[in-house]
Amino acid sequence: MTLKHWFKRGLAALSIATLAAGCGSAAPAQRTSAAPRPALWQVKDRDTIVYLFGTIHLLPRGYQWRTPKLDAAVARSNGLVVETIIDAKNPAELMAVMARLGVNPSAPPLLSRVPADKRAALQAAIARSGVPAAAYDRLETWAAAFTLIGTQFRSIGLHGDEGVETTLKQAFTAAGKPVGQLETNAEQLGFFDTMPEEAQRALLIASLDQPEKVRDQFNDMLAAWVRGDVAAIAKTFNDDMAGSSALSEALLRRRNANWARWIEGRMGQPGAVLVAVGAGHLAGNNSVQAMLQQRGLKVTRVQ
After folding, report:
1. Range list of H helices, 24-175
2. What is the pTM of this model?
3. Do the beta carbons of residue 169 and residue 80 sit within 8 Å?
4. From which residue to which does the signal peptide run (predicted)?
5. Residue 41: its H or E element
């Protein structure tokens, strides 16, 4: 699989993907062919438990992923921590960050940022998005790609309001339990804003895939996640980034190290907390769990 295909799968497992997808029309309910068992771990000492749950941030309507073990962890946890908190009902802060990082009036025309043989497809994708073509010319390449990929995600029935984090945040809020974040919106979008232009253009080209191809790529990732196949997830998120060490460092290793330090510090406080982050961060040699183990903490898979 090429780097551009990693972007497509990877974006659906990054919190900020809920921004790209927005809210679309309802899609038919989806069900797994077997009982779901997405991976769940715990880091535990005498008076503290940190649960680690790998997530998919965008899902079809009605997709079945809850399990008794996860529900027990939710009930036991005193709070929830996610990658970043996106308030869909009050998006002003996020929109301000997008405007600050994603708008560049001096950027070259968007059509000039793809090869000549991709320009007709880009023009068609822009038309489908409903956003005026001139507006795209003022965007950083990654921001234009986000807008177009959002159209792709909506076209195959994926929704941020059906994602795992959204569901978990609603459950914790309803129970009067706090919800925190590991990164601000600006920090998470900043990872994309600082990507090399070549990588941003690969993401833009990925936004031109036909919906059928996008659906197939996403379904492969979703099937691996819901059956708890961490090895398959690691291949998607880690092995396929081997061609770009800068991206791997920025989007996976550095962030995983930051989160491992946070979890290590949280072990000094009593009580239980559920940490829910994209499944790719909990798979592979540079996973959060691997970094916790390097720090001398024991990580146990419980589902």
Report:
1. 68-76, 92-102, 119-129, 133-136, 141-155, 164-174
2. 0.84
3. yes
4. 1-20
5. strand 40-44
